[in-house]
Amino acid sequence: MRSKIVAGNWKMNKNLDETRALINELVQKLPETSAEVMVAPTFVNLSEAVKSVAGSKVEVVAQNMHFEESGAFTGEIAPGMLKNIGVNTVILGHSERRAYFGETDTLLKKKVDRALAQGMRMIFCFGEELEDRKAGKHFDVVESQLRNALFHLPKEAWKHIVLAYEPVWAIGTGETASPEQAQEMHAFIRETITSGFGEEIAEAVTILYGGSVKPGNASEIFSKPDVDGGLIGGAALKADDFIGIINGI
Ligand code: 13P
User: Is 32 noted as a catalytic residue in this protein?
Assistant: First the structure.
């Protein structure tokens, strides 16, 4: 059985007080669930967030990291610094990092390698833009994002990798991929992983869907056989909404 995950990507939201309050509410109200539950607050609040989740099943994860371990990289965060404060999972390749901060497949490949060298787990994000889908190129785009950043890896690496398909046109827009569109792409992703690494690995890898998942649409999307959970933006910022989504798994 592959693990199911519901992860909240808080992006650049919530100050320290709000971070503590949201986590406390989440921990208090969290239902019994077989899914792993993760939250990704901003860097500056990670350390406190780790303290706030102590004793609960919520894991604190990072939204990004640098590909080097130390050095003259002003403003950057090294993976070892994350591990040192108890953060062992990192989101890599989010479309906002790709679009606004110039992260390319080549750069992401380096980050993937560094995360693995540190023994970290990663949620690797990818997905097509609206123009790609309109042009019928969405499968090609997704395949090349996977190939360029992940296909050099040894098979053992895959136990550290969670994939997150996030079509850019569905992020923060209120427009979701339909459950059928999500399933179609997730099945394609699993086939692509099968072609590179074999069926055993492809069947074991958790593939999350992200893009305007809400309490009202979560269970239908999560009911699809190749959708193993979600990476949630806006709806992760309210405990009740996030819990509504967790209940959909
Ligand atoms: P929304 O849920 O706000 O569309 O964001 C999705 C996302 O980008 C999660 O990483």
Answer: no
What are all long-range contacts of 75-84, with beta carbons under 8 Å and residues at least 24 apart? 77/43, 79/114, 79/115, 79/118, 79/120, 80/118, 82/46, 82/120, 83/118, 83/119, 83/120
Annotated active-site residue 94? The verdict is yes
CA nearest 40: which of 1, 18, 16, 10?
Answer: 10
pLDDT in tens, 77-121: 999 999 999 999 999 999 999 999 999 999 999 999 999 999 999
Atom 7 (ligand 1) nearest CA:
233
The token duo for 199 is 């069926």
d(CA 202, CA 224): 16
- Residue 20: pLDDT over 90: yes
In sequence order, what are the beta bridge partners of 126? 165
Mean pLDDT of 158-182: 93
- CA pair distance 135, 137, nearest whole angstrom: 5
Residue-level length of the chain: 249
Question: Directed axis angle between helix 16-29 and helix 46-53, to 10°?
Answer: 20
CA neighbor of 56 nearest in space, from 34, 16, 82, 24: 24
Task: Give residue 182 CA to ligand 1 midpoint distance, Å.
Answer: 14
92 vs 162: CA distance, rounded Å: 10
Q: In this predicted model, what pLDDT tens digit does every residue of 119-146 receive, in sequence order?
A: 999 999 999 999 999 999 999 999 999 9
Q: DSSP state, 59?
A: E
